[in-house]
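Exercise: predict the fold of this chain.
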Amino acid sequence: MSNLPKVAWIGLGIMGSPMSENLIKAGYNVTGFTLEQDKLDRLAAAGGTVAKSIAEAVKDADVVVTMVPASPQVEAIAYGPDGILENAKSGALIVDMSSITPQTSVDLAKNAKEKGIRVIDAPVSGGEAGAIEAVLSIMVGGEQADFDEAKPVLEALGKTIVLCGPHGSGQTVKAANQLIVAVNIQACAEAVVFLEKSGVDLKAALDVLNGGLAGSTVLTRKKDNFLNRDFKPGFRIDLHHKDMGIVTDAARNVGASLPVGGVVAQLVASLRAQGDGGLDHSALLRAVERLSGQQV
């Protein structure tokens, strides 16, 4: 029998599935629940235990990890008679790794405390590749003691793990992350179109650019997407649209001006409106191509 804490995992999407599998590889007993049967089958094949409901998944768990798309989904799985707060045992620790509004995280921590349940917000950056390779950057909000308790679990999932402040701080830092990533992808996309229209060898150009000050993790991760026009979703435009709404709203609340971020948020929204919401966020290249008169 493992002396490691028992883990319940709620949400087994593009990120959640490989992350839960990394916990299993690290020796954790993981019981999972999601709405898609194929994802449950994948968890079982990896050595996890499949639950028939949230209540069943969390009832004996020491740590409950949640990884769902947005605030409404976090609220749906957390609250109500079938939710986490009504069915997790007193003293359990919820590690919410979803990307949601800071206020949702603050409210969840407050409501959980009334049930004797602790919460940290721990959104991630690194995309599907980072999830598979267990090299995610994890930004955390919550109490120091809860962070310390969760850290061994988080160390099975990522490499850069930082407590950023009280509840909601992890989400605030994640919002800033998504702002930087979106602006970076947009700049890369514009450079790609400029280079191609100029007749330059695109692969050679991106290689040399990535070796200098213009280099970035975004360019490293997304270079092949640009070269091959491969927009299979690692992180969908739909989700980045949601995140840009979070950061622009949060910035407005604190009085921060995001002039470039606001423009990129609109470009993400326009791409989604044109039916590209299910594509990877590197598909911002398609928006630049359309603006440049190209057929896509």
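Check your answer against the key: The longest strand covers residues 158-165.
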